[in-house]
Structure formats: C-alpha cells, structure tokens
C-alpha cells in the first residue's frame, strides 16, 4: 500500500525534526544556566524553523491518514495512528506502531526538557527581579539630622526611577 509507506516515511521525518528540536532543547539548558542570551536567541530562531517544518509534516501526515482511512473504507471520526494500526495488516501496522512509539518517546523527552528549561528561565527572572528590587531600595546609610538635632528617618536612595 503506497499511502502507508508514505505515512511511515512522513512519521520518520517528523521524528527526525523532533530529534533536532530535542537536541536544541538540551543545548538550551546549558545556555540558560550560563546566561548566554545571544546564543539563546540564535537557538530560538533555529527552533522556529524546525517548528515550521513540523507543521508541514503534520499537514502531510493528516492528509495521508485521511487518504488511508478512505482507501480502507473506514469512516471513523477518530483518525489516529492507533486506529490505523488496528485497521491495517502487517507489515504496515507494525511499521506504523514502531514509528508511533519512537515519536511519542521523543515527544515525551522533549516535554520533560522543555519543562526544565521553563523552570530555569522562571528562576532566572525571579532572581533578576529580586536583584532589581534590592538595588532599587538600597538605604543610603547616611545620617539625616532634623532641625532639632534628632536623627530623622533614613531616606531610601533609588538607583532606578522605574522598575521594568
């Protein structure tokens, strides 16, 4: 079945793109930790290109799945690879199942890595905000005497006019 072979090839291509995104996510972890913003920006641009490739492959996959369902005479609204695996015969069903398993594994690992990167970025932003607040509220430490000779309340010295 020609459409099944095309679907298997499309799934393999999708997995390759997801592998590339996973590699970028792993590299981003080190870059986030080291605070290299310029390199992070470059990686995000690479990642955007890969996301566009993913979208194209996803469209192709959906068209192929719909075509195979039509060829098999299945009118199920739930057109998934799992449903297709059950409906097809070997070797196509085993090939699809293997592709599905590998793809889901890669997506799972990518999710874990993206969650870690998200937490690292959040922690970095919290640290930056803490530092800005700390600097913005530094006590000048000088003694301010009032006209009566009594020490007046210390005035806070702000290095920043506004907080971004």
UniProtKB/TrEMBL annotation:
Keywords, ordered alphabetically: Bacterial flagellum biogenesis, Coiled coil
Entries under Gene3D superfamilies matching the protein: FlgN-like
Superkingdom, taxonomy of origin: Bacteria
Gene Ontology BP, a term: bacterial-type flagellum assembly
Cited Pfam families: FlgN
Coiled coil: 40-67
UniProt-recorded name of the protein: FlgN protein
């Amino acid at each position: 079945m020609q459409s099944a072979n095309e679907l298997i090839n499309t799934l393999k291509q999708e997995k390759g793109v997801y592998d590339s995104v996973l590699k970028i996510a792993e590299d981003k972890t080190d870059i986030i930790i080291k605070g290299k913003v310029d390199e992070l920006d470059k990686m995000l641009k690479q990642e955007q290109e890969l996301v566009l490739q993913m979208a194209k492959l996803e469209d192709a996959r959906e068209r192929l799945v719909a075509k195979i369902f039509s060829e098999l005479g299945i009118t199920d609204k739930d057109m998934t690879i799992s449903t297709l695996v059950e409906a097809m015969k070997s070797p196509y069903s085993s090939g699809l199942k293997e592709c599905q398993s590998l793809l889901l594994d890669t997506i799972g690992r990518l999710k874990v890595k993206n969650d870690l990167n998200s937490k690292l970025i959040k922690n970095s932003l919290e640290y930056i905000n803490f530092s800005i607040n700390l600097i913005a509220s530094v006590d000048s430490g000088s003694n301010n005497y009032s006209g009566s000779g009594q020490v007046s309340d210390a005035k806070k010295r702000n290095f920043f006019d506004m907080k971004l």
